[in-house]
Amino acid sequence: MNRPSSSVLTPSGFVGRFFAAVGRQASWVGRVTRLTLVAEHAGGLGLLVWNIGVACVRLRVPKREVLRQLQLIGVGSILIVIVAAGLIGVVTSQQGGYQMQSRIPLYIMGSIVVESVVLEMGPVLTSIVMIGRVGARITAELGTMKVSEQIDALHSVGRDPVEILAAPRVLAMIISMPLLVSLANLVGITTGMISAQYTLGLGRETFLFGAQQVWHNWDIVYSLGKAVVFGAAIPLIAIHMGLRTSGGAEGVGRTTTQAVVFMTLTLLVLDAMFPPLFLN
Fold it and tell me: What is the pLDDT of residues 102-141, one digit of tens each?
């Protein structure tokens, strides 16, 4: 991981100074490189979260920038989310039908498609799409601003990069993700039902009957909860990595690659934590 040439985040309050201290003291924590990097990232992310929270509470986030990011992140991602979700529904239905032929009643296909899409496929694959489309863009964008000293220019005129650049992107992503995941769930279920009708001869009423057998109202809360958590994690990591960029154009490319890996692994870890915490 790249080491930042200078910090662009200013501690605010006790909690902010605590996270800043974690990052500063990372050079001697354990005297082990890996532990040092973990401590640096933990301190940097914690400080970033705190400063964004302070900016939101103090209403210093520019509303126009939030709306612009909603357009770029949310509206701009609708088409690719629809395509990905549609394919998810079709594949889930066809593979489930292949495995269930002559063994299990076909109406069970409704429950398999609906539960798979709502609980897992919808939020996770939508988030992976957003990592590639939005997360990588944010890291590259802020990384380019960092190496070209545009971030330093904001400091020189008394503007806080967290308020202007970080907070609007995080807020826009948190708002957009539940809406996009809801759309993905709807499209995935619909295409799965259509696919089951044409490939398995499973009628719409039978499909919906099967879906109702195992449906819980908590499932939609669970799905949207994943969307909110993933929607916060993706831009936070992307911004954190972007603000650490150094080394010119090569550094931007290297940091963007590292950020995509970091976001993907974090997404999978968070996804693995949801079932034991919220389904048991």
Answer: 667 778 888 889 999 999 999 999 999 999 999 999 999 9
Structure tokens, 111:
């429950």
Q: Is there a single domain that holds both residue 254 and residue 232? A: yes
- 205 and 117, same domain (yes or no): yes
Domain tally, the chain: 2
Asked if residue 100 has pLDDT above 80, the reply is no
Contact by Cβ (8 Å): 188, 88: yes
Among candidate residues 60, 76, 93, the one where a domain is terminated: 60
| Domain extent at residue 164 | 62-278
What lies within 8 Å, CB to CB, of 127 at 6+ separation is: 177, 226, 227, 230, 231, 234, 267
* Sign for the pseudo-dihedral over CA of 103, 107, 110, 111: negative
Sign of the torsion formed by the C-alpha atoms of 12, 18, 19 and 25 = positive
Same structural domain for residues 69 and 43?
no
Considering the domain architecture, whether residues 157 and 186 belong to the same structural domain is answered as yes
Q: Does residue 52 register a pLDDT over 80?
A: yes
**133 within 8 A of 78, measured Cβ to Cβ:** no
